[in-house]
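Minutes, methods subgroup
Present: GH (chair), OT, SY

1. OT presented the first of two proteins processed in the latest run. Sequence and structure tokens recorded below as shown on screen.
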Amino acid sequence: MAAQMIVLVFCVAAVAALPADTVISKLNDGPRYQYVSSGEGPKLVDTWLTSSSMARTARYAPDTENVYHLFTRQNPTISQPMLLGVPSLIAANFDPSRSTVVLIHGWSSSATSDFVVNLVPRILAAADVNVIAVDWSAGAYEPNYYSVVANNVPLSGSSIGSFIFWLNLSTGASIATYHVIGFETGAHIAGLVGRSLGGLIPHITALEPPRPGFNLNSNAFLSTDGIFTEAMHTNAGVTGLVQPVADVDFYPNGGTTMAGCRWWDWECSRDRAYQYLGESILTGGFTGVLCESLLEATSGSCESEETLNMGGLTAKFGSSGIYYLTTNEQSPFSTG
């Protein structure tokens, strides 16, 4: 009897020691735990999707939880919120005859992020357009479950695409007038928005698309997601993707550590992406030199005479390639 009790206790202990959280998928081919930049600083996160994180994903309902904040020159500081499928909430100031710029924030963030706060006034100062800041914080704010956020990315991308389709159908606006800009995790969502709309969005800009969870992931940004796609790499190889992903990829200062940022300050280099874009929208001035290879771009050894301006609100249809440029340490960042 004593022997049987010992065996029973051993079996219970063995079962208790088994992993309770089953791994469903590995989001990329890298190590399971990786550092990712967030709105709260760098975090070591789990990039594997498990049964518990999948259960958390099931709670996110982007069609009802994503909120779309409209800013125009008529309401530049106080937004008019819209919801998918609610005609009574179509913003009064939305003008279907104008171009529309859509901003998509990243992980552990919201529509009040520095990315949105920096770009909205600059866009409206440069052009009389509709600016829609997407708030997908219901799916983005999972500070301890990065794999949940990565799994929420395609859900949000598809839902934002549905919102644009519905808004155009309801107001008569045309998809030909859209420019979608995504920052950090939002960069991959921006691509998926375009993909969900058949690649018909004229202009998509990916700012510092992240690497953890998206290296070799089918939900990562693709050059074919829009008619013209542009990417800016400012923390490549650390928290950002190194490889080119768009029709045109810019690698300021080699793409990894930005001028004026310390090598260990990932947020500084990451945030330079939207800071450069904001400045380019108002003053231009960021001139990239065409590179023959990624190695040339990351080492700054490009010697071509062919140049292209980085950023701005105008799509560079027909352009392609990898470009290098240098910036100043402080604003104004453009060297001319």
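2. SY then presented the second protein from the same run.
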Amino acid sequence: MSLHQNLIAGEWIGNDPSANINPSDTDDVVGEYARGSAQDMTDAIAAARAAFPAWSRSGIWERHVILKKAGDEIMARKDELGALLAREEGKTLPEAIGETIRASQIFEFFAGEVLRLAGEVIPSVRPNIGVEITRDPLGVIGIITPWNFPIAIPAWKIAPALCYGNTVVFKPADLVPGSAWAIVDILHRAGLPKGVLNLVMGRGSLVGQVLLDSPDIAGLSFTGSTGTGGRVALSSIEHNRKFQLEMGGKNPMVVLDDADLTVAVEAAANSGFFSTGQRCTASSRLIVTEGIHDKFVAALTAKLETLVVDNALKAGTHIGPVVDEKQLKTDTDYIEIGKKEGAKLAFGGELIKRETPGFYLQPTLFTEATNQMRISREEIFGPVVSVIRVKNYEEALATANDTPFGLSSGIATTSLKHATHFKRNAEAGMVMVNLPTAGVDFHVPFGGRKGSSYGAREQGKYAAEFFTTVKTAYTLA
């Protein structure tokens, strides 16, 4: 089995292998991937810094061609890359292929944005003076990504960073080096100059810390846990660098008495359990008014009984395994916490054995939960969902907003009045009406409020707010 190495200054290096294990079949080694050292990260930062002057002044057509070529190759290889993603992360093959297509679309979008770079020319209030307002690249961007979207999230950070003329040092999650390596390899072969994009795989406590401590990082874009996000923020403040955080969520979905029951159940099942609940936008709190509560719980339970939990690559699988043993223990610990807190285990919660050894867990539904329980306040990041009964819309909205997080929020209703009020008053960065809370477009802003996010929004044209800095220039005529 060949070793997949780190990319530093345009060269593939590294000899410390780590096995990438398939959570659907722990006997299956997806590949061997190099673990970088602290020196590797130091060298990668230096390479990116050396490459910045030329790349930041490169022509827009050069950048367009490279990003377009990368997007085209990802799309052409969507089935192959999707299978790799499913093997290493555990989401079902259709979901994995869909994520790969989204990565391609992101590169296509920013290939177009390169050609749409624009500024402003405006008159000064003083006579015979012109004013130009432009956007400059920041410099070296550090990118740290999570394991749950191992190709889409790197794409929506790397593509705009390169589009706007920055150089990149990329540190992916330890659990999913395969998708990260593939996307870097594609960009490398697409023609990026040496040092513009550097990949350093390895332990976050080692290589990630070097990234955080470096004064040469001009901007740091992070998606991951709230705890690590706090460390990213503190280090960035110390170095006076720009930083962007996407962290946890405890997303609510409100179901009102007037909701279409079929629509509500489909949205709740998708939000809470697909991708094994391992999405920061997943709905883990279902806030249901008492008039529809019992019918909704019965219908959702019936839906869960039809969902197949199995190998991610197997046809007909709806829910794959949990990503690894550590996350599985977190999920089962929270299931026990829910029971002790007094919530009723209405469905699931048991470990499952399949033909291949893996981290399989039944989708888990609690009822009779309150919004004060730990299972209703802390992010579990697994297929564990709580139903909270409320009296009316007003209580539902208050309960939905009663959380330290604010990423995504949803409502199922046929009332235009309530839908409009909820969109205006939900304390979240994204609001969904009669749709799953998970699942967003690639060309619109992504991000949340409160403890979920910090800094400029990601994706679409709003990405320029983070990856560039505004310059105002005056000229005497």
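Chair's summary of item 2: The chain has a mean pLDDT of 97.
Next meeting: continue with the remaining queue.
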